[in-house]
Write a structure and sequence with these properties.
heterodimer; A: about 400 residues; Dna Ligase, domain 1; D-amino Acid Aminotransferase, Chain A, domain 1; Rossmann fold; eight-stranded antiparallel β-sheet; four-stranded antiparallel β-sheet; 20 strands; B: alpha/beta; 2 domains; seven-stranded mixed β-sheet; 9 helices; 14 strands; disordered C terminus; CoA_lig_alpha (chain B)
Chain lengths: ~400, ~300
Amino acid sequence: MGRMLEDASKTILKENGIPVPGHSVISSSEEISEQHLRKPCVLKALVPVGKRGKAGAIKFADTVEETKTKADEIFQMTVRNFPVEKVLIEEKINIDEEWYVSITIDPQKQVPVIIATTEGGVEVEDLVKDAPEKVVIYHVEPFTELQPYQAKEIWSKLGVTGKPLVKATGILCKLYQVFMKYDCYILEINPLVLTKDENVMAAASVMGVDDAALYRHPELEGKVESGSERSWRPLTQLEKEMVKVNDADYRGTARYTEMDGGEIGFMCGGGGGSLLSFDALTNLGAAPANYTETGGNPPEEKVKGLTKGILSKQGVKGLFVAHNITNNTQIHVMARGIVNAIQELGIDPQVFPIVVREAGVNDEEGKKIFQEAGITYFGEDLTIEEAAAEMVKKMRGVS
Amino acid sequence: MSILINQNTRLAVQGITGREASMIVSHTLAYGTKIFAGITPGKGGQYVQGVPVYDTVAEAVKQHDINATLIVVPPAFALDAVLEAIANGIKLIVVTTENIPQHDAVKLLYAARKENVTIIGPNTVGMINPKDRIKMGSIGGDRPERCFVPGNVGVISRSGGMTAETSWMVKRAGFGVTTCIGIGGDSLIGTNIKDLLVLFEKDEETEAVVTFSEPGTSFEEEAAQLLKEGGFTKPLISFVAGKFTESMPEGTVFGHAGAMISGNAGRPSLKMKALKESGAHVVEKYDDIIGVLQTVLGSKVGEAK
């Protein structure tokens, strides 16, 4: 899943005929001039996370001086782990009412769903629970566009009438078109503003694009933060290096996430097997230093690069290697990659605890490679949890 | 008996000439599963490992009475492949493709629901019935016997790899399996745990079911609801992996795309609670599957067919 920054999503909305406030992006308060201040303005931290208002990262200003001061304040901030590098300056709009509309995919019904309300400034999830009559939840059939009458009915049910109804209807149809056209998994306008002069405008937008669909959207190149599903903080240096290791060869996957602290290098797979392995270690009181999944039959170089990365993190005192019994990942290739990595790093498995539990395709040969390198190897003789217990036992000697 | 696949399955492979398919086809044929036809546009008239290739699903159905298809095509072609299979009356479709755009997944699942077509996946390792030696997908790899031996336990897994590991645990406990299904790692899939429990309930040979779950989705909560309503009355042994993810920041995905926790939805602890309250045997440790299976099916040790 890939989130877009707000200036990029607003530009797309504008290109598609949806009114948005005039906006520009600055990297330093020095760039602020009179031309930004033809009207009072709003300053927003440009970071790929929500709830900026609560974090104090949205501010208002009326003069150039005030704007500079407030921009500097925002540039000092780190919003939910993201240091602010850019600030969005927008014209302040004359708000009469704040509404909300979002388009996502309903995971239960497996169709697109529009959620709309004219109650602004509240958490929509709470509103659905506390005052469901104030929210319209509308499912749309795939393979069709949202028809104007459908959009009209949504707003009409919420009590919108007159000129705002006509405007809001047109905007919702266009928002749905944007949602479909750019393969969004979320398009949220909060607030959708009714202005004092009865116009409707998208004052803030969140647009997330399915990165599995980016191949058919060359126009979004560079605008979407691909792989931002682990986005509670920016990637660390080591994580960035591991992304490179993974991207260097299309075969197999190697994903690496650093944990805070930890002692055990964690080299596991696949998707479910790594969850189980991590649980197994933590249940025994051990602390993995990272979370890694590898699978899909990765080549030797990728395994080697990933292993080296895992072992390079400070404080790592051992290595746990485990997979579920593989359907296609070749154990002897895994073995070569891992053994090469530890030999290149000059690690001696006699003193540095390593436990391997790998069974599946070509495991006879894999076993030989591991054992010849002096590594403790288990195949089908132990379950994953039993192997984790062996690992924890071995760690006692070094912790 | 088994569910979904048996001796009457007449299998075709869409995308049979691709790189991905060649290994699956050779393993499948070696296992003894007959593949009646393959489909790749522009490659009609060729043969892949002895399997005749057609340009269209229509021709394959006409020549071979195909009633199940395995889709092994790249993401950009998956939606069209599924629509083609549905349009030609095929009622069982296994979609192996990973990274299908969500909007395409929504469309193909919608089209399948309208025509009462069963979709397994997308992003699935597939399923296997070892008694009839039939498998659809990469499941089992080159040596399905290692993990999948005939018996009386059904296996449902949200992880492809753990479909094998969990079936191997069943074998280690002294039993075997009727049908094992990897339902796919995505959140948008055609057949979820509850749907399969309904089928296992009707299957006379299946005496218990083991499930492997992960964070995210509401599949386990829906399964628990089914148990509460009396829709599944056999022993259900459930394991939910990824409890550690609950202490990670919200919105983080570990494992599969479907494994997203948002607010309280998707938390392993709540899934376990719901399943426990509905009467399922929820194991805290994965290894406990062995002991619980032996207790539940105790009297039947040695009788596994």
